[in-house]
C-alpha cells in the first residue's frame, strides 16, 4: 500500500455545528501521523478556485466551541460538470494532495463519489455533517443534536408566552425531507401535535385533538410543523385551523436559520472529534469511497454508494407513537 503524505479537508452544503471540532480532529490526527494537511475554503468551489492553505496544529486552536465552519462552505454548481471536476483534480494534483475528507450531506457525498470514481488516485472519505440527521450509516449526523437543542430552547420561550395568553402556536422547524428535529423537539417540549414529512397530516384529526386539549383545560398549545410536512406549511395550517377553532389566539413562528447556528453541544463536539479522527485513520489505512459514521456508539465505515442508495432514513415508529400518547 502506497503511503499517504498529504491530505485535504473541506466542508460543503449547509453548515452544521460540529464541523469545526471535526476539522480540528482531521488536522491534528493528520499531523500526529506525519501527514501534511491543507484546508480548502468554500467546499468544492475552493477546489476549483485552488483556494486552499496549509494547516498546522495552531490553525485549529480555539475552534471547538464555534458554530459554522472556519473553512466556509458553499453550494457549487460547476463541480457538477466534467470540466469543473477536471479543474478540481488538476489543483489537487498540483498541490500534491492524495486524500480528501469531505464533511457535508448527501449532495456532498454524491459529488465526492462521482469525483472519486473518475479520479480513483485521490482517496475520498465522507463525514456526515448535516443538521437533518437523514444519512444512512450513522445514527446521528453532525449538528443534529445542537440544532435540536436550539429548537427546544426557542420553543420553551414560546411556550411561556403561549401559556400567558392562552395561545396556540404553529412553529415551523427545519427538515425538508426529514422530521428528525421536529419529532425530538416535539417530544422534549411536550408539543400537542408534531407534523412530519414522514406521515400524512389529517387536519380534521389535528383540530379534534386541539379541541380535546382545550376541553382538558390546556392553557396553551404548541404544534410543531416540519418544513417538509405535506399539508402546506405552518401559515396555511394555521389558517385552516383558525376557521374552525375560535377559543385560541393563533400565532405562527418560523424558526428559520437560527436553527443552524450556535456553539456545538458536547455531543456534537465529541461526535465531530470522533468522526474526524476516524476519517483520517481510514485514509491512512487505504480506505476510499467510504463514509465514517457512528452506530451503537461504534465507528462504522459504510460505502458511499450504499450510504447514498439507502438514503431513506426512517423515523422511529415507537417515538412517533409515544409522542401521540404523551401529548393528551
Ligand atoms: P445539506 O444536507 O446540508 O443540504 P448537502 O451536502 O446535501 O448538505 P448540497 O447543496 O445538496 O448539500 O450539495 C453540496 C454540493 O455538493 C453542491 O453544491 C455541489 O457542489 C456538490 N454536488 C451535489 N450533487 C452533485 C452531483 N450530482 N455531482 C457533483 N457534485 C454534486
TrEMBL record:
Family of this protein: Belongs to the phosphofructokinase type A (PFKA) family. ATP-dependent PFK group I subfamily. Prokaryotic clade 'B1' sub-subfamily.
Residues the record lists as binding substrate: 130-132, 167, 174-176, 227, 251, 257-260
Cofactor(s) required, per the database record: Mg(2+)
UniProt-listed Gene3D superfamilies: 3.40.50.450, Phosphofructokinase domain
Record comment: activity regulation: Allosterically activated by ADP and other diphosphonucleosides, and allosterically inhibited by phosphoenolpyruvate.
Active site, per annotation: 132
Complex formation: Homotetramer.
Matching InterPro entries: ATP_PFK (IPR022953), ATP_PFK_prok-type (IPR012003), PFKA_ATP_prok (IPR012828), Phosphofructokinase_CS (IPR015912), Phosphofructokinase_dom (IPR000023), PKF_sf (IPR035966)
Amino-acid positions noted as binding ADP in the UniProt annotation, renumbered to this chain: 24-28, 159, 190-192, 218-220
Organism: Mucilaginibacter litoreus
Keyword ATP-binding belongs to the record: yes
UniProt GO molecular function: 6-phosphofructokinase activity
Subcellular location: Cytoplasm
Keyword set includes Cytoplasm: yes
Phosphofructokinase domain mapped to chain residues: 6-283
Pathway(s) of this molecule: Carbohydrate degradation; glycolysis; D-glyceraldehyde 3-phosphate and glycerone phosphate from D-glucose: step 3/4
Protein name: ATP-dependent 6-phosphofructokinase
Role description: Catalyzes the phosphorylation of D-fructose 6-phosphate to fructose 1,6-bisphosphate by ATP, the first committing step of glycolysis.
Keywords: Allosteric enzyme, ATP-binding, Cytoplasm, Glycolysis, Kinase, Magnesium, Metal-binding, Nucleotide-binding, Transferase
SUPFAM superfamilies linked to this entry: Phosphofructokinase (SSF53784)
Catalysis performed (reactions): beta-D-fructose 6-phosphate + ATP = beta-D-fructose 1,6-bisphosphate + ADP + H(+)
EC number of this enzyme: 2.7.1.11
Main localization, broad class: cytoplasm
Source domain of life: Bacteria
Binding site for Mg(2+): 106
Sequence positions that bind ATP: 14, 75-76, 105-108
Amino acid at each position: 500500500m502506497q503511503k499517504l503524505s498529504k491530505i485535504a479537508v473541506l466542508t460543503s452544503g449547509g453548515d452544521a455545528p460540529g464541523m469545526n471540532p471535526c476539522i480540528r480532529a482531521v488536522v491534528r490526527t493528520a499531523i500526529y501521523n506525519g501527514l501534511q494537511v491543507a484546508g480548502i475554503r468554500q467546499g468544492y468551489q475552493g477546489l476549483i478556485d485552488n483556494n486552499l492553505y496549509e494547516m498546522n496544529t495552531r490553525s485549529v486552536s480555539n475552534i471547538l466551541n464555534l458554530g459554522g465552519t472556519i473553512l466556509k462552505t458553499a453550494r457549487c454548481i460547476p463541480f457538477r460538470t466534467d470540466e469543473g471536476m477536471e479543474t478540481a483534480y488538476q489543483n489537487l494534483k498540483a498541490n500534491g494532495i492524495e486524500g480528501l475528507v469531505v464533511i457535508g450531506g448527501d449532495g456532498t457525498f454524491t459529488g465526492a463519489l462521482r469525483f472519486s470514481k473518475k479520479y480513483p488516485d485521490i482517496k475520498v472519505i465522507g463525514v456526515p455533517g448535516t443538521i437533518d440527521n437523514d444519512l444512512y450509516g450513522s445514527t446521528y449526523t453532525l449538528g443534529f443534536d445542537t440544532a435540536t437543542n436550539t429548537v427546544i430552547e426557542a420553543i420553551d420561550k414560546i411556550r411561556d408566552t403561549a401559556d400567558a395568553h392562552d395561545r396556540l402556536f404553529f412553529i415551523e422547524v427545519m427538515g425538508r425531507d426529514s422530521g428528525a428535529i421536529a419529532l425530538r423537539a416535539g417530544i422534549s417540549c411536550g408539543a400537542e401535535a408534531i407534523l412530519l414529512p414522514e406521515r400524512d397530516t389529517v387536519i380534521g384529526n389535528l383540530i379534534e385533538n386541539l379541541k380535546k386539549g382545550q376541553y382538558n383545560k390546556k392553557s396553551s398549545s404548541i404544534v410543531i410543523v416540519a418544513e417538509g410536512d405535506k399539508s402546506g406549511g405552518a401559515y396555511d395550517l394555521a389558517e385552516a385551523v383558525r376557521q374552525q377553532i375560535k377559543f385560541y389566539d393563533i400565532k405562527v413562528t418560523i424558526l428559520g436559520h437560527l436553527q443552524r447556528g450556535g456553539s456545538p453541544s458536547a455531543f456534537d463536539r465529541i461526535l465531530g472529534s470522533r468522526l474526524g479522527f476516524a476519517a483520517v485513520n481510514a485514509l491512512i489505512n487505504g480506505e476510499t469511497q467510504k463514509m465514517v459514521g457512528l452506530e451503537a456508539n461504534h465507528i462504522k465505515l459504510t460505502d458511499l454508494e450504499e450510504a447514498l442508495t439507502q438514503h431513506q432514513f426512517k423515523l422511529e415508529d415507537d417515538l412517533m407513537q409515544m409522542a401521540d400518547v404523551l401529548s393528551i
